[in-house]
Structure formats: C-alpha cells, structure tokens
C-alpha cells in the first residue's frame, strides 16, 4: 500500500484511532488524530503563525492543517499582511488586516486561496491547469517549453511567474502543487485548456515513443478544443492505427479515442464498418449501404461529421432519414450547424437552415454557429447567419459573444460586420471583460490587431470599464505592451487609476518590462511614485522583476530612488 502513496505525503490525519496493523503500514508518517487531541493543531498553529492569536486562526482554519501551512508561507512571501492587534467590532474572534484588501483573516481554505490568488501572477490559472493536466508532475524545463511554444510567453517572464508561485508549490522541480491547489482544476471540463496546450505541445514536438503517443491521446481525449473526429484524424497521422495494446490505457476516454483511431486492444478486435468515419471521409456509397443499419445516435453523429467536412450530399441523405438530426447536440456541445460554420462550409449552412435548424441553438455551452464563424473569421458564413436572424449578442456559458470571439482573434472585418448589425460593444463576460478587453489581452499582435482595436473604439467601446480585477483597457494594454497604448490613453479618465491590487498602468507595464509603454505613460503624465497596496512603486516592481532598463528609464524621469 505504501508504494502507491505519493512521495510528498508525510502526514496522515485521522478522525479515528488506528489499529496496530494500520500503524505498521504508516510507520514512516506522522499521524495526528485531530478529534482526540485538537491541542496538537493549536500547537501547530503557534509554531507556524506565532505572530497571530492561535484561537482566532483555529476558528478560521476549520481544522485544516493545509490552511495553517499555506497561510504561513503566504505571510513569509509577503503575499498577505499580518493582522493588526485591533479586534473587529463585529466579532471578538476575528482580527482586521492592516493593509491587505481582505477585511479579516480568510475564513476557510477557499477564502485563503482567493486572497492569495489575487497576489499571484495574472497567468496563474494557465500554470495551474498545465500542472494539473499533466499525467506526471512536469519538470520546470518541460512546463516552460510548453508555455513558450503554445502560449507565446517569453521564457524570462515565465521564470519570473514561477518564482512568484513558489509559495503554493510542494516541489519546484518537478512542479507539484501544494494541498488544495491541486484540486483547483480537478474536473475535466475545468482543465480542458491545460489538456489542449499539452496536446498542442506534443503535436508540435513530435511523438518519438509509444508512451508519448499514448500521452498525446490522453490529452486529446480530455481537450475540448477540437472535434472528436479531428482528434481521431490527428492520432492516425501519428500512427495510432498501427499500434496494438495489451490492455486499456489511462482511462476510458483515452482508450476509446485510441481504438477509434485504429489502435487494437488484443483479443478485442472488431470487424465493423464505421458509419461516422464514412461520413467524415465523404464515402457516399458506404453511407448509403449502412444508413438503415445504424442507430439514431450514429446517424446524428454522422451528420455532424459530414457537416464539419462540407459533404453536403451526405448531409442531405441523413436529413432525409432523420430530419430531427439537424438540431442534435453531442456531448462536446457541437451540432451540425456549428460544425459547418466553424469550417466555412456555407453550402452546408444553407442546407441545414433550409431544413429548419435552430440558428442559435447549441446546447448548454451556448457556443452558437455565429460565435464559431466569428472565432474562425469566416465572413461569408457570418453574413449568412446574420441574414437568418442569428442573435448577434447571444452569450455562451462564459458570457462571451460572437463579437468577443472575433475581437480576441483579431478578425477586424468580422468585428466591423457584427457592430454594423447591432452587436453591443460593452457587454461583459463572466469575468467582467468586454470585447476590447479581450482584444487587448490576447497578446497576439496580429497584422489586423490595430484595426480591430480601432474598429471597436469607433464602434462605441467604453475604455474605462473595469473587469473583475479592477482593470480598465489602459491597464491591460500597458500589461501587454500594446502598441495602441497612446490612442487608448486619450480615452482614459484617470491615467493613474488603480486595480484591485492598487497597481497603476505604469506599474503593470514595468512589471512586464515594457520600456516603450512605460515611457509613453510617463510622457502622458503617469505618476512615477504612485504606490500599490504593499507600498511598492513602479521602480520597485521593475527592480523586483529584473528589468534594469526600465529602472534606469524611471530614474531618468525622476522616480524616487529612496522610497522603501
């Protein structure tokens, strides 16, 4: 049993007394029974947090050893501030915090993680998802390589971010998250982006071993980026149809995907024609021969497959056999119309609409055909869907509209078409971001980026709206060093506006080493000596991040070198 336990596990906590045989199993661990002896937890608090009243912390921690350890590490890393000695008037057991924006000691693990997260790098969720999605704890070098290749982030910024994240890591190489952080993205749907990026990384670097190919299949199976049939095609391109497996691998989803891609599990070989594959490949004859023998689910999945490849003749066959297939939505939230729109098959779009498909329907995810076409930049399909009264402002499960999708991808022409057709430029998604926020945050800097920003501004985008982090468009442009920053400044009411962490646009630009952006902000009157919630100026932040050229520039503009 002990061999199956993770190497980082050193402490066993139980609410009942262990028998002698159980004690032998856990002979190399520290065992604490918190129900029998809560004083041990109190002693642990006093050891880890000697500066704070132990009774107060004991009440807030809800019996969590992780809470105490993580709180201690956060204090040592200056992510949180020490409580003052004054007691709250509302509760004698709670202490107010002197400078952090939380009013009390975080009450429970969830509140603690939220408080710490606000002080960690902007790309924290990206790192958490990649670490969680990895089959094995990734090495620091492998994680950095994956982010550089798939997310286009510079190595020095990733290194800086990982250094800031060390207080929440159990191990820094390989990267193992500490305690409850491992459960932040524990469900597949919450970790899709991490699986998608790992799949992209392996696809670009190659599958030189069978183990890597199976790992590739694992990430593809749990990724929501590609349609199921595209995942099968990619695996076949990497030779999945040439392998034989002695047993299922990893989980059902991975094994099923490999088998669909042509892998054989020994003693489970099936000689069965694949209707969906025939629809994908455009094999009209096979589809005709199998049409009467397949189930309703196979028929409807076949329509989605044929739609994604533009096989209008096969789509027509299936619709004649099952008219209701047009509105079927699969488990990945794809229907035939969204598949056709995403892949720019306007002939199939027309056919489906003629057969009564609901233009705005696409399951619980809410990602409509219009959003798919806007994301992919297919102008003709966007115009056709709008002409058929597609809801231009329909929001998906994340609150995102077609305009937001087009803006994020820098499709300036699509943005213009949507605005002309009544799209509201200032709708916010679930994170408080508008279309312009997303255009500026993508960091893509494509050839159409400047035009996309200009079209949104001309279309009525409010540059002073703040997202959930209290950041307006200038904050985001400064953080990413966007070349449209001078234009954006002209629309901002307060160039020194502070986000929820007290950071100004100048601080954010200096934290990322954007020399030109810093200079432009100062030339437009930005305060070089403004301080954030921790008393840090732009100069201090630049120095902490190792950007000497930014430090020299700030000093040349009169930044206070003596501030501490």
TrEMBL record:
It comes from the Eukaryota. PROSITE patterns: ANK_REP_REGION, ANK_REPEAT. One of its GO terms (biological process) is RNA processing. GO terms for molecular function: RNA binding; RNA nuclease activity. Keywords: ANK repeat, Repeat. Coiled coil: none annotated. Pfam families: Ank_2. ANK repeats lie at residues 365-397, 398-430, 431-468, 501-533, 534-564. InterPro entries: Ankyrin_rpt, Ankyrin_rpt-contain_sf. This is Uncharacterized protein.
